[in-house]
């Protein structure tokens, strides 16, 4: 049943309820994206769990969010339970073996995992506007703020930096308006108030350094399994915009950082987007268009994006059309919207003459789904009514003690736990400004040392191939150049200088931004 190059999802059923055949996700189409949908309690999270397990075993790193805390058990050995054994017997999964998976826990708040941060500069104007739910006028001002910062090589690390720049813009609105376009003082003020709200909601912890390195979510173990990064999202879900924007930022980073690989044998990374409706809900049209574009293009970087949501109508049609591998759990069909969802879901499958899709969708049992994956030259397989396999890891959460134990031996233990020390950062950066070339070389060396230290000598973990070059290639210019001469207290002065530089159209090292506004590397 376990085949090379394929991920076993479950076993499909004939109309008389006997076993039909095993259903697989072909790893070479793993980057052709996917969709897992179904009403609450129908088995979406377990499906996500067994897909993540399958990818990990195939050596594919996985990133997923743990929205309800019930996915963390993927880091623990499964435990025998009657109903799980029954399912295994039913689908012919014998022997049903348990396994624990190499998990890295992450948490924006640093409570249930390693800290995840990024800088304002790296997030960019589009996503920051989205995070703040900015009006058009506010977005205009945010764009100008980034123009000033980017063109002058002025790094915006945290919310304080951004506040300082806004202060400066407010105080010099009329002069700056001449150079950059109209800056409304009222909009500047309202953005500053929004920033305070964000700060109170805990976003202040998310912005700063050390920023997450994408190579750290692309690790594999020495025995060739892909790391499963699990983002604690229960608290984060209380701030749905931060959740949605954060995942978009991750996607955007992946897109900007990873090299083109065409269509690989298996994905380089699989990214699960749980509660995907939060991503699109009330999102401006331009953002949806950009997301659609990134999803389309990221495939050739070997990244598979899997949306998980209750209702297929939650995902815009242009995005939906790109999701090749589908697992549709049961839907209800009471309200007109629900009926429409059933129809949409049914219509997107390649029909099976044995049954009526729309009818079956409303009658599927828990942990049962309509499954269609890409096969052959990349065409969707005929839809099959499928019993999903039980997980090999634990169903349900890890205990606090287990979580701590996993974090302690994590390959990123200690790398992100402390905020970057400002004083020493400043000293380092000043030194770099003086001897930019030497310092960049030293940084390269330091990064190489760190990498080899992490990936050698009995460690259970290795970094991805690109990660060996990536830190040196990206962080040197990122830190050594634009951040050189940076001094928190004098953000306004620096802004002034950078404006002067820009105006004089001299050397201002403009940063280039990608589709979703992340920095181009
Ligand atoms: N493949 C499966 N094998 C065995 N049991 C399953 C399977 N899938 C689901 N179940 C059972 O159904 C329960 C609910 O599944 P799950 O938590 O995945 O639902 P969900 O769709 O994620 O719900 P929610 O929308 O509330 O998050 C599980 O706790 C488990 O008991
Ligand atoms: Mg769930």
Description:
- The protein has 521 residues and is an alpha/beta fold.
- The chain has 18 helices and 16 strands.
- The strands form 3 sheets. It has a 12-stranded mixed β-sheet with strand order 2-1-15-12-11-3-10-9-4-8-5-6, with helices on both faces. A two-stranded antiparallel ribbon has the order 7-16. The chain has a two-stranded antiparallel ribbon with strand order 13-14.
- The radius of gyration is 24 Å and the shape is globular.
- The structure holds adenosine-5'-triphosphate and magnesium ion (MG).
- Adenosine-5'-triphosphate binds at residues 38, 40-46, 68, 84, 87, 366-367, 388, 390, 395.
Mean pLDDT: 84
Tell me the total number of β-strands: 16
Largest sheet geometry: 12 strands, mixed
Q: Spell out which ligands are present.
A: adenosine-5'-triphosphate, magnesium ion
Low-confidence blocks of residues: 421-437, 454-458, 466-492, 495-509
What is the radius of gyration computed over CA atoms, rounded to a whole number of angstroms?
A: 24 Å
The assigned structural class equals alpha/beta
User: Distance N terminus to C terminus?
Assistant: 43 Å
Shape: globular
Within the largest sheet, what's the order of strands? Answer: 2-1-15-12-11-3-10-9-4-8-5-6
What's the helical proportion of residues? 40-55%
Continuous helix count? 18
In what range is the share of β-strand residues? 5-15%
